[in-house]
Task: inverse folding
């Protein structure tokens, strides 16, 4: 049963990547994985009693902000594409417009999620690190 749920989740994620545009969504997912790896490494170093790592915190903040801006950039590209498609047609239904706008918002949503996670992790790392 768990295996079937994982397949469903995986197919859901792959569908959203396709809908949001692989050109934008795949780099955002790579940034998310990098943020998670940096977070795990930073927490591991803190647990071992290492010195403060301002470099990891700055890197997480920069990656999170980049993901947010890249997601908005992806939304703007998608919005221009959707509006170009609709400007050529004589009649456009509200349903078609709503679907096009939904697809453009996916990259911004993922970028915002990565930004929020990176900020949450940096707050956690700042709170957990020993004072020098």
Result:
């Amino acid at each position: 049963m768990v295996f079937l749920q994982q397949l469903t989740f995986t197919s859901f994620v792959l569908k959203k990547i396709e809908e949001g545009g692989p050109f934008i969504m795949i780099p955002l997912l790579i940034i998310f994985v990098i943020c998670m790896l940096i977070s795990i490494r930073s927490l591991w170093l803190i647990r071992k009693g290492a010195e403060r790592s301002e470099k990891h915190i700055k890197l997480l903040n920069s990656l999170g902000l980049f993901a947010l801006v890249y997601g908005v950039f992806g939304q703007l590209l998608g919005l221009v594409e959707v509006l170009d498609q609709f400007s050529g047609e004589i009649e456009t239904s509200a349903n078609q417009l709503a679907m096009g706008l939904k697809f453009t918002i996916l990259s911004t949503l993922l970028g915002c999620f990565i930004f929020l996670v990176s900020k949450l992790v940096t707050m956690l790392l700042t709170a957990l690190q020993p004072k020098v």
About this structure: The two ends are 50 Å apart (CA to CA). Residues 27-128 form one domain. The chain is about 85% helix and 0% strand. The CA atoms of residues 60 and 118 lie 6 Å apart.
